[in-house]
Amino acid sequence: MLPSHRDVEALNRTLESRNAELQEANNELESFSYSVSHDLGAPLRHLAGFSKLLQEEYTANLDETARHYVRVIQKDAKNMGELVDGLLDMGRLVKCPRLLYQCQCKFSIDVSAGMRSGAGDGV
To answer: Cβ contacts of residue 44 below 8 Å, gap of 6+?
Structure first.
């Protein structure tokens, strides 16, 4: 049995409503990821910069444990910077649905790889 004209109109209204909700959610996601990535950018640059200064200027004054801590800070600041860049990329790709799936997969892999690599640092 074919749906009636009223049924089709009701389905179209529902579809239009859900499409508007999805667009609003995508806009919020883009805004959130942009805001978070920029809010995290400056502190990450500070961590990377100060740890580089510690390594370059004070290495001779640091014991091996302290040098290890500096290397961990540098590595994790770099990884976090890449995750922040991924957030920005994901926010941009929300507008390109065909590419979004690839971005989400890559982002998930990057997140899990970052978590695994930080787990064994002993810090």
So the answer is: 77, 80, 81, 84
Give φ, ψ of 95 to 5 degrees. -80, -5
Report whether pLDDT(56) > 70: yes
pLDDT of residue 88: 79
Separation of first and last alpha carbons in the chain: 66
Percent of the chain with pLDDT over 70: 74
Q: How far apart (Å, rounded) are the C-alpha atoms in residues 56 and 54?
A: 6
Region of 96 on the Ramachandran plot (φ > 0 left; ψ -120 to 50 alpha; else beta): beta
Query: Kindly report the CA angle at 92 between 108 and 73, in degrees rounded to 5?
Result: 50
Query: Which residues, including other chains, have CB under 8 Å from residue 52's CB and lie 6 or more apart?
Result: 74
Burial-class residue 68 by CB neighbours within 10 Å (0-12, 13-18, 19+): middle
